[in-house]
Amino acid sequence: MDNHDPVDSLGEYSRYWRNKTEERKKNLLKREQLLKELAKKCSVLLKQKFNVKKVYLIGSLAREHRIHENSDIDLVVVGLSDKEYFSALRELYRLIPAGINIDLITGEDASKSMKNIIEKIGVLI
């Protein structure tokens, strides 16, 4: 006969998920900090090497604690020439660890809706 108390099991189950949730929050916070640091490094590289005038951070990183496990770095740049776009993107991917993606959008080519997003949530970095 099973003497296993279901209440004890429920308590263990609850603790397990509470710990799992806390661990996930900590990991997301670490990822957010890492991605923001990398975004700043990308901004410096773009300004120094490609004479970009402005770099905006948009997407989930532009909003506090909105990232998820697959969040990437979304950057809008002003002043990057078309002919240097792929060179700049290549340099950015050399700078960041494998497994992290970058979306590089030129402000001059951004759609009207994208420009609205930049105005509303874009963070100048």
What is this structure's SSE topology?
Elements: H1 6-50, E1 54-58, E2 73-78, H2 85-95, E3 102-106, H3 112-121, E4 123-124
Parallel strand pairs: 2-3
Antiparallel strand pairs: 1-2, 1-4
Question: Can you put this structure into words, describing what you see?
Answer:
The mean pLDDT is 89. The chain has helices at residues 6-50, 85-95, 112-121; strands spanning 54-58, 73-78, 102-106, 123-124. The termini are far apart. Strand 2, helix 2 and strand 3 (102-106) form a beta-alpha-beta unit. It has 125 residues and is α+β, with helices and mostly antiparallel strands. The protein has 3 helices and 4 strands.
Name of the level-1 CATH class: Alpha Beta
Structural domains: how many: 1
The CATH topology is Beta Polymerase, domain 2
Low-confidence stretches: none
Classify the helix fraction into a percent range. 40-55%
Averaging pLDDT over every residue, what do you get?
89
Shape: elongated
CATH architectural designation: 2-Layer Sandwich
Q: What is the radius of gyration?
A: 21 Å
Biggest sheet details: 4 strands, mixed
| Secondary structural class | alpha+beta
The total of beta strands comes to 4
Order of strands in the sheet with the most strands?
3-2-1-4
Tell me briefly what this model is.
The protein has one domain (10-124): Beta Polymerase, domain 2, CATH 3.30.460. It has three helices and four strands.
What are the key terms here?
125 residues; 4-stranded mixed sheet; 4 strands; 14% strand; Beta Polymerase, domain 2; alpha+beta; 3 helices
